[in-house]
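Query structure, 182 tokens:
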């Protein structure tokens, strides 16, 4: 009976210690929003190839690609902001499709392997409902993605894919500057 009692106490002690450690790791885990992000920002003036009328139709789109590191995990997001054509845009027929692609890549010699990527289509509706006078929130931020990259340095990169309606070209890809290595 004594051995059974001792075994139960040891099991209970291990369970309590495990629960305490698990609680500690949950409390000390880093939140993606609390990290110190480093960003690279670049801009492009993008012409609407489907429009050839008398009004200015360029979109000046600026994208910041940001990354942070906590231990072996890299976190990344992209934020786009823009000035649209010199008019109010409330037209869901400007694009067939548009999305912002973001990825995390390990920084190694040769081709940098992508370790995590995601496409975010929410930018299309924001672009199609904006203006150049500041009446709308002309910005879009992707959700944060993350990847365990071990001890290897990594960075985030992005491209904006626009498929203009009635231009017959399909997607046009616009690359932007990658984040600093983390």
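Result returned for the query:
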């Amino acid at each position: 009976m004594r051995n059974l009692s001792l075994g139960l106490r040891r099991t209970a002690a291990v369970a309590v210690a495990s629960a305490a450690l698990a609680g500690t790791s949950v409390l000390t885990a880093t939140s993606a929003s609390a990290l110190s992000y480093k960003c690279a920002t670049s801009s492009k003036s993008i012409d609407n190839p489907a429009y050839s009328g008398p009004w200015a139709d360029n979109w000046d789109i600026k994208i910041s690609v940001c990354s942070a590191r906590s231990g072996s995990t890299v976190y990344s997001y992209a934020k786009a902001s823009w000035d649209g054509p010199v008019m109010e845009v409330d037209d869901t027929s400007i694009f067939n499709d548009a999305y912002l692609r973001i990825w995390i890549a390990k920084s190694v010699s040769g081709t940098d392997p992508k370790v995590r990527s995601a496409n975010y289509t929410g930018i299309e509706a924001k672009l199609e409902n904006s203006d150049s006078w500041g009446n709308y929130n002309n910005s879009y931020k992707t959700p944060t993605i993350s990847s365990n990259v071990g001890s290897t340095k990594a960075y985030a990169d992005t491209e904006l894919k626009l498929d203009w309606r009635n231009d017959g070209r399909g997607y046009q890809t616009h690359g932007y500057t990658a984040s600093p290595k983390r």
